[in-house]
Write a structure and sequence with these properties.
mainly alpha, Hypothetical protein af1432, two-stranded antiparallel ribbon, about 60% helix, about 5% strand
Length: about 210
């Protein structure tokens, strides 16, 4: 198989991201009136828009192109793992854990190793490095970059935007879910990016009134 044919096959493979739905069937979303669920591909698109529009609100200098690359590949592993619920079951309820469990971290690495079987060789080293950078930032591991830290913050902002849109359509939040979502939003965003605080505070108001 030549490189161009391999690239075409991979691009067709990426179309799976358009059919992986965000949060559908997960805890707090089992019996809802949401008529249309966002896809992982749509999540990635709005993260990229956020990166462009919020770039002046980041504390440190960073490379926008690198950030966009991280955003575009960060959820490719979900073609193998599916969309993942960010909260942990504890007894009869759920809690928010600031760091992803080691199991998830390792599973993501294994999934990316499967993914590279579909990638043209010329992209494997760069994309593996960018993906590892992102999951290191998620788990507060080293090494990581400012671009990955920013991408993690945007991941949580976009996820929360989607939740507020779903809940506006549905009409109510479960109180525990509302608390968890607020913790999820603020933990990785405000700890690394204080200049995002005003924007995040405005989004928290949306959670409160939605």
């Amino acid at each position: 198989m030549n490189d161009q044919n391999q690239l075409l096959k991979f691009l067709h493979f990426l179309s799976k991201l358009k059919s992986i739905l965000r949060f559908k069937g997960m805890p707090y979303w089992e019996n809802t009136s949401v008529e249309r669920w966002d896809s992982v591909a749509e999540h990635t698109y709005r993260m990229a828009i956020l990166a462009i529009m919020l770039q002046d609100k980041v504390d440190t200098s960073f490379n926008l192109e690198k950030t966009l690359k991280i955003i575009l590949i960060h959820d490719w592993v979900e073609m193998f793992t599916g969309d993942e619920f960010p909260f942990t079951k504890k007894g009869d309820t759920y809690i928010y854990e600031n760091e992803p469990k080691e199991t998830r971290y390792n599973n993501d690495l294994k999934a990316f190793n499967k993914l590279v079987e579909f990638l043209p060789n010329e992209y494997i080293v760069e994309f593996r490095s960018l993906f590892t950078d992102f999951i290191n930032a998620q788990a507060s591991k080293q090494p990581t970059s400012q671009e990955a830290v920013f991408a993690v913050a945007l991941d949580r902002i976009e996820s929360t935007l989607t939740c507020t849109e779903y809940k506006k359509a549905e009409g109510k939040w479960d109180p525990t879910h509302k608390k968890l979502q607020t913790e999820y939003l603020t933990s990785k965003v405000l700890s690394h990016n204080q200049k995002l605080k005003d924007f995040v505070e405005e989004l928290k108001k949306e959670i409160e009134v939605s």
